[in-house]
Every structure is written in C-alpha cells, then in structure tokens.
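Students often ask why we bother encoding 3D structure as a string. The short answer is that it lets us treat folding as translation between two languages. Here is a chain of 560 residues written in the first language.
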Amino acid sequence: MCGVNKIWLYINTIRYLKPVQIRHQIWRRLSGRQRERMRSQIVGSRTRQVMPVKVMIPALDSDRAYLSRFPLEGLLKNEIEILHERHQIDLSGWEVLDASHLWNYNLHYLEFLIPLAVAYRETKNDQYFAKWCEYVGAWIEHPVKDSFEPYTISMRIPNLLICMNILQDRLRGTELERKLTGSIDHQYQYLLKTQELSLLANHYFENVKTILICSLLFGERARYREYFNKFCGQIKEQILSDGLHYERSIMYHKIILEDILRVYTALGGRDEAGKLLPVIRHMAEALASVSRGFQKTPLFNDAGDNVAKDTESLLRAVQDIAGGNIAGDTAALEESGYYKLYAGSYALLFDCGQIGPSYMGGHAHCDCLSFALSKRGKALFTNSGTYQYQGRLRQFFRSTMAHNTVMIDEREQAELWGEHRAARRISEIRHKAGEQMVAGSFRSFCGDRFKRSIRLEEDFLEITDFIAAKDKQRHCARQFFHIDADYHYIRDKEQQICVSDGSRRLAVIRIPAGSRGLIHREGDICLCAQDFGQLGKKEVLEIRTPFEKSVRIQIGIKLM
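And here it is in the second language, the structure alphabet:
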C-alpha cells in the first residue's frame, strides 16, 4: 500500500472517532514509559479490608460445555488449551512465543483456572487445588506486558473472583488469599489509570464493569456510586432499543449480557440491582430471537462459538435471576438491522444494518445483505466466521466474499483494514419486512448501490438482487452462497447446482440465464471458522453476471 493511500485510510478512520478517543490514542502513544512505571507498582502485594462479593453464577461457571474448553489433563501438566491452540507454558515466563498474540492475550484472562476450581470443589481431589495455587502464585510473581493490558485486567479480575467464590472455604485466611487480594487491588489501581477511552465500546464496558465490582470488593462507596452511574450510562449507549449490543456481533452481545449478569450478582440485595433486570431480560429476549432456529452462533461480524458462553447457559442464568420464560419471538430487530423468517423446519437470519457504532468498527465485517439459513437448527447456508484477530487471513474473513451477499468486481462494501480498523463505510441503509419476506438496501463506500429481497417458503427460497454500479463501465456482479462444511455442491445440469449431504439433495439452485455458476473448492474463499482458532473448509457457489450500469438478478432455490 502506497504512503498516500495509507494516509487517506487513517484520515477516513480518524474522522469517525470521538474527540476523547483521539486524545487517549495520542496519550497511549506518548505515555509508554509512564505506563511502565505504573506497571512496576503492581509487583508485590498489599492488604486492605475486603467485602464479600459474589460473582460466580452456577448456570455459567459450572456448565459442562463451557468447562470442557479447558481440558483438565492438560492443565495438570501446564498445557493450556485456548481457542483450539494448546501450548506448554513456563510458569516463570507466562509468554508463549510460538502462540498467536490473541492466544497470549487470552492466557492472561486466567479463565482456565475456573475448571480447576470447579474440579476441586466437585471431587475434593487435592491435585486440582494444588495446581490452581501453583498457577496463581506463579502468575503473581512473574507478570508480563500482556497481563497489564486494561482489557486483560478487566477480564481477569472477575475470573479470579469466581475462583475465590468457588474455593472460599479452602482459601479463607491463607497467605495465598492475602497475596491474591493484594494483586487484585494493584491491578485495580492500574486499571483506574488506564481505562480504554481510546477504544470505548466493549473494551470500555469491560473496564467500567470491573471497576464497579472492585469498588464493591474494597468498600469504596463514592467510587461505587460514580461507576454504577457510568455502568448504566454505557448500557444506555451500547444496548440498542431492540435489545442487541450496538457492535452487532452476537458473540459480543453474549459477552456484554454476561457482564451485566455478573454485576447484578455482585450487587446482591442492593436496590440498584433491580434497575438492571429490565435490560437483562430485554437482551436475553433479543439473544433468544436471533438464535432461535440455529444450533450454533450465527456468524455475522466477529463471532464464534468458543469465546462467549453459549446461548442456552446464558438464558438459563437469566431465568434463574429474572424468573419467567424468555420469549425469543421477535422477528424484526429493526435498529440492529437483523430480521428473521421462518417456514416449516427452516429459519433464516438476514442482516441489513450498520457495521457497528460509528466510532468503533473494529469488529465489523462486510456482511450487509448477507443471510444464514438453517434446517431444524443445522446450518445450511452460513457465513465464514472469524478465524483470527491477527494474521494474513484476518482480511479475508472480514471481506464481502466471505459472506452470503453480493459485490461488484473486487469492490468491497466498506473499507475495512488492518486488524480492527474501519475507514469509509456503507451508507443510505434501508430495510423492511413483510409477509414471509425481508428486504434491504445500501450504498457501498465507493458509491455502488445494492438492493436485496428474500422470500422464504417451506420449500422455496427466492433471492432478488438489484445492483447499480457507480459508473457506466462493464462490470461483473458476484453473488456468494457459502454452505456448511458438512455439505457439498454438485453440478446437476448446465444451469442447475445441487446442495448434497452425500446421500441426498438438500437444495437445488437455478442459475439465471446470462449468469455463470462457479463452484469454489479450494483457496481462501473456502475457509471457514465456526470457532476462533479452528480453521475448516467449505464449498462456495459464486454466481457471476456481466452487466453495464445496473442489473436485476433473481435466484430461485428449491428446498428439499
């Protein structure tokens, strides 16, 4: 990328930021030595009076599917599995050079300590408690740079408190409890000085959540009042009127819902806890609505199944806390731009919303007008997912061609670049729903216009696209249909392609006259990741249609 183009990327990224973000971005770049000095103050421990704070939620922290993410046999040998990567760690180093940055970042959440604590509580086998103590003691004595990132602190402190809740009878009054409490206090003091106002969004939400919990832990009444108000303010800003988180990632929606559940639990019987119940229920109903008919997390924006807690355990936790059933029958989440269609055994989720909040597009994908279709909960058509946050494939998984949508030539919908940056975006977004139909439209960052309507019947899916280029040159419209990794495409006739599971047909796609269907079985376009860190392979049908100025393309899919 030439220097001039990169300058424009920065200009078109910065212009969306809030002034507070720009100020703190500059501060972060100029304050390296100052932050190093602050980090050095964390080494060691001090003791001050703490108040009992419960953050452990049985429906989440004792869930078998969740605990299985961190195999116990490996943990006992200092082998830690995170995001499908397993590495042996040196307890005097706490940094694995062979692992990705995201892996090392997640390592310092210390989330893998929770399964050890649960295993000890359930079995009373001392090897689990001894290993838990070894990890904690070594981490306190050997801190590294990633462990001081404000986000890792914000994720780690609640995880440590969950463990302390689980192991309270064994830890009470011990030297390790004193050291651990002192370490939490120092991390908390550092977090207060380094909150992520340069990023805001989910990162700042995590900061505020953890500071609020720590203010309860250390009995700081004035700070508690200040940060409870900030927490409520962030809920008001980040949770849309339809109940979804404003970054429009179902995975991050689940993470934020868990955060609010943790704060509610930490508040105990305080009057303020009741103020959180309406948003907890609203978010749970939105989650149930978008997830209904899908066994796995629908892959829109950054999303996967092995980061947040699963939907069922979150909904159980909400029912335990808020009582009553969670409806999950909302078909139109209009502010988010998500719409649901149901017909027989099929469920369809359609996306026609903003990439996210204007000042934070770091988790956005070029997935406007994309859809996911499942049959009896099993995905049939699915987006590619999110494999990594750093690395060569990051750009592909955010690209237009990684989703069940449409593009012109090589022109992306939005100018997403770097690992988590967004410059020019989609605009003029419109969407609506009717009887068994959803429709949406937008203008891409380079000026092309797209309209799509989808009609779902019990045995038929009809997709109609209207595409208008910004110029009058000859172009190629490219429509993508990604199928689940368990299925494959068969060319049945010249203009007819089938989806098969190996023994029977599941769908028949009719290619319109004047268009050409290409089946991709190799290359980056065929990569998929339902989970972070686990790379799979799928097949993709691309329908190409040459046109000048504008074209209308109708695709009929017979569902079996």
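Translate back mentally: The radius of gyration is 25 Å. Keep this in mind for the problem set.
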